[in-house]
Amino acid sequence: MLTLLKKRQARTAAKVAIAAQSEQQPDVATTAAHSDEAQRPHRPGLEDRPWDEIGGILKKDLEYARTLPGAQDKIPFKKELIKKYAPLVERLLVTHKDNLERLDVVWWFYLWKIDVGLLPLIHDEFKAAVLNGLDTPDDWKSDGYTAYCDIVFKYTFDAHKEKESLNAGYLLDAVKDVIGGAAAIPAPLKVKMFRLAGDLLRESGKPEEALALFEKVMVLSPSKGGCKTKVKELKEELGHEQ
């Protein structure tokens, strides 16, 4: 009987000792994971990678974006691209602040922001960058300022058509730039911009300024500009026909 009791006590003591030893020993799997993480080489951020590598990554991202079927898929992906490229672009805007030519990644970064509806937040910054040399990629048919004007026109046209709030100053300022000779854009785009700007001015109670733009449209496109009736109506309203 005494022998049996001693055996039970010995087994109990052994179990306690094993449990204590297990608590003191580090978990092998956890230790191995930390060890692997410590030995894994640090992957630099996009802004710290070689320029050729950045170009390759951008090309793949653009190609993938083109495969997405519609806005429901494109918009979330472009939001991810904005996060991904933000540190790189922020650095480039500082290091190349005097000349932004041939920086395609900066152009696409702004375009992604515009595509997800952020033009009102970045317009001034985007326009300043274009005026500072930011241009479209080489395979685009239009230059940076023409593309900017097209973006501003589309933003204004869509919002005006849907009767949504908009900043008319984007288009009106661009029209002033074009008329003042600050930049040259194709005549068809001028016609669209001048006509829409004229409509906005007319609606805001500035018939004289609207008439001046409609008359410019008539010079650029007498038969297809769509302003013949508007010019006639405004001239009658302002007494110019008397």
How is this fold's topology laid out?
Blueprint (H helix, E strand, L loop, with lengths): L1 H23 L3 H12 L11 H17 L3 H25 L8 H12 L3 H13 L12 H18 L7 H11 L7 H17 L3 H14 L7 H11 L4
Helix pairs in contact: 4-5, 6-7, 7-9, 8-9, 9-10, 10-11
Portion in helices: over 70%
Give the percentage of residues in beta strands.
under 5%
What best-fitting shape do the alpha-carbon axes yield? Answer: elongated
Report mean pLDDT, rounded to a whole number.
Answer: 85
Structural class estimated from helices and strands: mainly alpha
Can you give keywords for this protein?
single chain; 242 residues; 11 helices; mainly alpha; elongated
Overall description:
With 242 residues, this protein is mostly helical. The chain has eleven helices and no strands. Helix 6 (119-131) packs antiparallel against helix 7 and helix 9 (187-203) packs antiparallel against helix 10 (207-220). The longest helix has 25 residues, at 71-95. The radius of gyration is 32 Å and the shape is elongated. The relative contact order is 0.05.
Question: Nutshell version of this structure?
Answer:
With 242 residues, the chain is an all-alpha fold.
